[in-house]
Amino acid sequence: MNTSATPLVVADGLHRAFHVARGADPVVAVDDVSFTIEAGEALGLVGESGSGKSTIARILAGLERADSGSLRVAGIDRRTVGHGAAARLARARQVQMVFQDPYGSLDRRLTVEQTLTHAMRLHGLAGGRDAKGGAAELLERVRLSATQARLKPYQLSGGQRQRVAIARALAVEPAVLVLDEAVSALDVSVQAQILELLDEIRRESRISLLFVSHDLAVVDEVTDRVLVLFGGAVVEEGRTQDVLRKPAHPYTRLLIASVPGPGWDPHDVIARRAAFELSRSDAST
């Protein structure tokens, strides 16, 4: 991991709220969140549903705009970039996103090779034979065959489709890869293969990862640092192993206790949750 003076990603005081009904108070999804990501580093975001993980990921990917705060990638403020097609392509070239459901994010009409060559041509990275050669290199990189290059998404397994999604993201040579629950829908054995692939890609290319997941075991395996989110705010952060093995915040301890394992007692988790909610209620009064 690179520890340069200036991190690749610098987020400062991000805030995002959604208006869900006329006359109702806005729902705060991201509340004063700050973080950095070094070149070649993997940062994890964990927390329960509604904690703000995916909204932060979408802000970094340019799919959502923060209401306030700043976000810089490679020194460029993402909030001040223009709204035209060229600006959108520039943002996409910096940061690519891999979603939970690759079948929904891939064009079902295109073969794997066409998917990759289209991405490269869109960003002006290759054309003609160069694009086909680049697609072949990408497929080799994600361990897919020339035979699979001729197939369409519906002809592939879930793990193969996710490899295609990763290859398409890498096709534009991004600085940051955002993965939003990218392995949660896969079988455990396939998860392991994808995680190994991501680790290999990171070591070879020094690409940075923002890894969003509710699976603490996955986050423990693939990330260097982790942010624990609750109610849109960061309640704990640090080196992944330190946070997951010696959690300081009661909510982090609750998350860890909620993971089934030997001797796991759901009634204990329910009691811990009730105690946590009561402590929050007492603190707010």
From TrEMBL:
Q: Does the keyword ATP-binding apply?
A: yes
Q: Which Gene3D superfamilies match?
A: P-loop containing nucleotide triphosphate hydrolases (3.40.50.300)
Keywords associated with the record: ATP-binding, Nucleotide-binding, Transport
* PROSITE patterns per the UniProt record, alphabetical: ABC_TRANSPORTER_1 (PS00211), ABC_TRANSPORTER_2 (PS50893)
Every ABC transporter domain range: 9-256
Q: Does the keyword Cell cycle apply?
A: no
Q: Which domain of life is it from?
A: Bacteria
**Where does the signal peptide begin and end?**
none
- Family affiliation: Belongs to the ABC transporter superfamily.
Q: What is this protein called?
A: ABC transporter domain-containing protein
